[in-house]
Design brief:
This protein is an alpha/beta fold. It has helices at residues 40-51, 81-86, 88-96, 151-171, 185-190, 205-208, 210-223, 248-260, 286-294, 307-315, 326-330, 334-339; strands at 11-13, 16-18, 22-24, 56-62, 100-105, 122-123, 147-148, 175-182, 228-237, 266-270, 298-301, 321-324. The chain has a single domain (5-351), classed as TIM Barrel, CATH 3.20.20. The protein has twelve helices and twelve strands. The protein is globular, with a radius of gyration of 19 Å.
């Protein structure tokens, strides 16, 4: 019989006590109001996962400021007091169902394709992301060339992350995850072909990770020790799935050791397959490299639908928590099903249509 016991071991992640090691991965859902408020439908959506046995939920990317951070129309924000207040119903229902919840703070940067505050975008350099905007999220055509972000604007971005984290704390969130993955602004700084700066934020890996580290440290210091803080990191991007860090393991060492030294509580890695080698056909995974060099707990995401694969990742020490995305969409009570030996449902593609809106799910879940 398969041994799934690693999935059910409790864990303290920063200041947050988790009942098990299974988390909901952040997924863009664009189901907020036009002005970025969380809705009752979103509260029901997150409550469903909490009732289904996920001990930790990480929200979809939430924009932190009213300038350039919004990436999608109908994306939720936490930039204002009113937006923060709208999240309290989500947090309260998740807590009542027995789970913890982190707010993922996301600045879209050059990958923005819908912003109600401005008609332009910013990036580390005036270089457009590869590929085209996602029609799925109301985008169309190539990404426009962003303006190179100024030092003053970078200060505003940093302040926006801090203010948003404090708003999240006021709303009752247990922690925040800084979105440093998938081609959004912080990841753009990490990416050699998008970051062509000649100042101390461009060039070497040490320089390109500087902005991510500054934001992580600033958020960590602002919210205090009673709130968990982490960062999500990937190589692949929304519009460039095949991207890999050109410096290989040495680059990973610099990135993860720098971020681990900022005082954050965890790193969340996301790859197409969490257990696959990060570089080439052999060698350690990105999660394993984060674990080795950051010195903090690691959440791993990427094709961990199979509970045996998820448990193995925990058993061998590659990760401390596994995060599920599509598998959770197909089975919002995945932990309950695994615990009780119940079969899984297949993923219904209709759950994404038409614009990844949250469906009116019946909450036929264990209490």
């Amino acid at each position: 019989m398969p041994d799934f016991t690693p999935l059910w071991a409790p864990l303290r992640l920063g200041s947050t006590e988790l009942e098990n090691r299974v988390a909901l991965s952040p997924m863009t859902r664009v189901s907020a109001t036009e002005d970025g408020h969380a809705t009752e439908k979103m509260a029901a959506y997150y409550e469903a996962y909490a009732r289904g046995g996920f001990s930790l939920l990480v929200t979809e990317g939430i924009y932190p400021d009213t300038a350039y951070s919004q990436g999608y129309l109908f994306q939720p924000g936490i930039a204002t007091e009113e937006q923060a207040q709208s999240w309290t119903k989500v947090v309260d229902r998740v807590h009542a169902a027995g789970a913890r919840i982190f707010a993922q703070l996301m600045h879209a940067g050059a990958q923005a394709q819908g912003n109600r505050f401005v008609d332009s975008s910013v990036g580390p350099s005036a270089v457009a992301p590869k590929g085209e905007q996602l029609a799925f999220y109301r985008g169309e055509g190539p990404y426009p060339v962003p303006a190179e972000i100024t030092r003053e604007q970078m200060d505003k971005v940093r302040e926006g992350f801090v203010r948003a984290a404090l708003h999240a704390k006021e709303a009752g969130f247990d922690g925040v995850e800084i979105h440093g993955a998938n081609g959004y602004l912080i990841d753009q700084f990490l990416t050699h072909y998008l970051n062509q700066r000649t100042d101390e934020y461009g060039g070497s890996t040490e320089n390109r990770v500087r902005f991510a580290a500054e934001i992580s440290r600033a958020v960590r210091e602002a919210v205090g020790p009673d709130m968990t803080v982490g960062i999500r990191i990937s190589q692949a991007k929304v519009s460039d799935n095949d991207h890999r860090w050109s410096g290989g393991i040495e680059e990973a060492k610099v990135i993860f050791s720098t971020l681990g030294a900022t005082g954050i509580d965890f790193i969340h890695t996301t790859e197409y397959r969490a257990s696959a080698p990060a570089f080439g056909d052999s060698g350690p995974s990105l999660a394993a490299l984060a674990k080795q060099y950051a010195g903090v707990p690691v959440i791993a995401n990427g094709n961990l639908d199979d509970p045996e694969a998820a448990a193995a990742l925990l058993r061998d020490g590659t990760a401390d928590v596994v995060a599920l995305g599509k598998a959770a969409l197909a089975n919002r009570n995945w932990p309950h099903r695994v615990r009780n030996g119940l079969p899984f449902d297949e993923l219904n593609p209709g759950i994404f249509a038409p614009v990844a809106d949250v469906k009116d799910w019946e909450l036929e879940l264990p209490a």
